[in-house]
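With this grant's support, we have settled on a layout for protein records. A representative record follows, to show the layout.
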Amino acid sequence: LGVGRVITHDELFATPCDVWISAAVGTTITAERARLMKARILAELGNICATIEADEVFREKGVVVLPDTMASGGGVNVSWYEMVQNRQWEQWTERVVLAKLQKHIKERFEYGWQYSQEKGLYLRDAVLDLAGKRVVDARRCTIC
């Protein structure tokens, strides 16, 4: 077995990397930790991984943040696929499920990214804006 060394939380957060994946524990990334981080991309695979103040630091530093609403939706999609299969008395192969999931996630990311670029919005703001528009559109449909 190899020998490691104990590091502090600050040392961990200051470790240079291309992509930082935060999952499971909300608001773990505070403004102080965000200032230490050297990642170019933060993928939030849990709910609200970064505090509002940390998010502001990432904006200032130009870190691309894949917000939780965008980055952690795969499980929700697969649950939907299970429901569809059950209702239709079907059983899809893992390959079919993964192909559907990959297509959906890619389309959603590209749509959100393009919208953020066109509107000059931070990715989180763009994704939330699009989500709000979908809620409004859905509400309109139920009123009609």
Remarks:
- The beta strands are 19-22, 41-44, 64-66.
- The chain has a mean pLDDT of 92.
